[in-house]
Amino acid sequence: METRELRYFVAVAEELHFGRAAQRLGIAQPPLSRAIRQLERRLGATLLERNSRTVTLTEAGSVLLREGRAALDAVDAADRRTRRAALAATGNPGLVLVTKAGASSELLAKLLDAYAAEPGAATVDVLLCGPGEQERLLRDGRADVALLHRPYDSTAGFDTEELSTEGQVAVLPAAHPLTGRAHLRMADVTALPGLPLPRWPGPDGTYPDGPGPPVRDHAQLYQLIALGRASAVLPESCRSHRDPGIATVPLLDAPTVTTVIAWPPHSRSRALAGLIRAAVRL
Amino acid sequence: METRELRYFVAVAEELHFGRAAQRLGIAQPPLSRAIRQLERRLGATLLERNSRTVTLTEAGSVLLREGRAALDAVDAADRRTRRAALAATGNPGLVLVTKAGASSELLAKLLDAYAAEPGAATVDVLLCGPGEQERLLRDGRADVALLHRPYDSTAGFDTEELSTEGQVAVLPAAHPLTGRAHLRMADVTALPGLPLPRWPGPDGTYPDGPGPPVRDHAQLYQLIALGRASAVLPESCRSHRDPGIATVPLLDAPTVTTVIAWPPHSRSRALAGLIRAAVRL
DNA sequence: GGCAGCGATACCTCCCGGGTATCGATTCAG
DNA sequence: CTGAATCGATACCCGGGAGGTATCGCTGCC
Q1: CATH classification of A3-82, choosing from 3.40.50.300, 1.20.1250.20, 1.10.10.10, 2.60.40.3200?
Q2: Cβ–Cβ of A78/B68 closer than 8 Å?
Q3: Nearest Cα to A4, choosing from A71, A99, A51?
């Protein structure tokens, strides 16, 4: 199986429309139809059910979509990491660390300081992204290491070390009556009239249906909360974000959040090993 | 990057010889040379240092060898799992479980019994292989789930659940004087005159240099021990293998061995989930 | 210095990936 | 019920590139 075929199939499987998929791939529709047919013949499997009006995935098709994405990520990672390794030979053998924008900022600062203080430390580029994007960046080689937050982020397929564990707090507009309480329960927060929990985008960039306002990062979220349009449940460390319009109340029964440092298995560069060592020493 | 190019590069990087690599790939040498050059041009990296007499890997080349193997495994896995999914639609949605030949046999028997007793259990094919091969089989889709033994096997990149932990024992010929002792230490066993520890093949199928006899599976090993030609350090459960020519003595300071059930992340078939559930209940 | 081994180059062939034009089926407007 | 629109499949053509053969050039080594 060639990566070209995989890319074609993934495009069609995501669009469920040969014309749009062809457009996205920058080719005409007929060669795309042929390529998919040929792929099906070679696999001996029907991947798509097409009745000239709608296209749907078969069982085998969804397996290939999932596995094919992973395989394409692995190929992309091979490409990028090789390029980086070639650059490293001439100059800058840096690391790329990715984390959610607005999360674990003091932990990250401490980590970067601790690592920079080590002899022979490499430069660390910090990449901020929305929630759910980190796994992707780590898998396809755009990042070398990530700070993830269980149970929100999945650590499946990565090596990890736990860095810290913390409870969660309710984040409310400062004027809200509940801010006077010493503590709350999840049930108090999930159904606040007029203060829905926000919706975060999924891995594909689209927002799930629901009542809350769509939100891309923590800055947006804080602003919406200060405006009295949303509430949130966040790790305790978000309290370091001082904002007069926002108050936090401890939650007794929210799941604890574990911050972990994660990296792709088998990647054992000296720089990465040093960063991980610095992290576990924190 | 196309998988064809990756296959070509991996072949050359493993053989370090264009002629042999071309033969292995079933093509002539000139197209292979061209393909590698083109790959290097596109990556903007020198992968191989060649001086018309010897070929060596550059730093970037070893990165691409490691990452490329992983990517090819992922592509192979996509291929195989899609084929299996297509077959499953027509008939047999079975699982393939891989474990080291001769290890954890009673645990495996209990697991298979427990799972088979569940309603709606799928058929489980058991694949036995040499040590170090399991990770490969799991990564490239030839197996769905494995029993691994830490710290001997690496679980990097897989999801795992611990099943059991046990100490290790020295395995000696029955006639050996040390068999009378109540217990031993590692130092007593590693340097036994005339009874070297065996050599297991590495992931590439070749044997490391050393004194011990090369060994492919546990049956061979037991035979060599009974013949007085080798000794071994194995998990306690190997005592279930009763053999009059063989005796075991507890080791006080050997690392404990943890048997884990491991599967590729993101693979969540109903059958696999059931097997894992049965395993953790044991 | 001649020879053997090995990778690179030159040059040719042919397959296959991609394009355009068109067909056939299905859906929907009116 | 009919015509138009939409969409995937088919027919056919073209060009690039993958692969083959012949050969060159370099490098150790008797």
Answers
A1: 1.10.10.10
A2: yes
A3: A71
